[in-house]
Amino acid sequence: MIDMIYIAQSDILQEQPVRVKQKVMVLGQSGLIYSKVAGRFEIVKKLPKEADSFDGMFDYADAFGKFRFAYIDSAHKISNTTKDTKRAISIGGEFGFNTASYYDFSLHVSAFVSQKISALNPSSGNINEDFFDVNSASFVYLGEASLDYNSDLFQTKIGRVRVDTPYANSDDIRMAPNTFQGAWANIEYTPTLKTQILYFDKWAGYDSQDEDTSASQNDFKNLVSQNNFGMLGASLTYEYAQNSQLSFWYNYIDGMAAIAYGEIVGIYSVNDDFHVDYGVQFSNISEHDNSNVDGDVFGLMTIIHYKGAFLGGAYNASYSDAQKYVTNGFGGGPYYTSLDEATISAISEAAATSGSTTANNAEAFRIGAGYNFDNSTFEGLVFELVYGELYNDTGKIKEKDVIVTYDITDRWYGEAIYTNYDSSCSNNTFDRALVRIDYSF
To answer: Which residues contact 20 (CB under 8 A, 6 or more apart)?
Structure first.
């Protein structure tokens, strides 16, 4: 995600390119927990420096980094028991380099760091594990290491890479994003028609952790199991109007499911002050090897923008047979109603394991409003309120999110998220406060 930057959520890493060819949405959605809009899987090409020899690749290499300070405080209450409060503080970030290109080939390396501040953290029994490894210890690992090829029409990365696609995405929500081991390519047939191709067999990151294993988020582990070859995927995207596109993705995940995903997203602009974002999505998930990952998901969303204010809503419905469920894939998933914590795939999976013999169908909606202060003294500041409900025959999840993000300068970025979560499915409630401050160089 360095030479090729994918727009997803609000996390955009920066480096020092010499030649830049950008294809960026002029009108984007404000807010961190935003409804999906055109451009969320858009690729912004940043071609590296050019060298005239192999040695020159390293002579003109660029170092980059991002220091991150993060604080989390979360109080959980299971059933009627006393709330269990856990918190943590960590410093770390991302540090790496890009070589210059030689015959359009270059190298990219990036390490992710989360360092526990022992004096500021509670005892092991009260520490929040989200920032650390399986033993609640600090970690450092090579999250990205790839051989890259970049030209105007074709780009590829081989090794450990960061991508943002519907069912494999970085979802940078704690100290480090998800990254994948394998290969990725992008082909641009015309300025409005392109294809992405990917193959991954392992991944690491916060979302990759499995409660049933001892593997840490900093360990690269099999997507499904050591007996399965991984995930093959391809897409075709057509930009039918400015900031509006039609896309189709097909992913074959060995031992899990085949997923066909289609989406129409765009922006309708009335004038400079008023525009509307819209989207329609559909996913068909067909299980493999009796994985029980099977079903269909439909989604709609719209957001109205007037000057700095925005108001939007989204709806998803999922349909699965008894004891089967839909999935986010590997990362946060593509669904419009996803909140800071809850997603329709989570409530679908919970119902599948409940033992119910009826069809496993679920619905979700989300509404949100906020204000972008770009035309004021506080340029870069966004305030947002979000409310969502997800429900099926086994229960209901309600979530409230308060989000503040602030692009303070080109280098400084801050965000604060308060989440109130209440699930009757698992009799679990919690309040979580998360603060992150990044300094990029």
So the answer is: 45, 46, 47
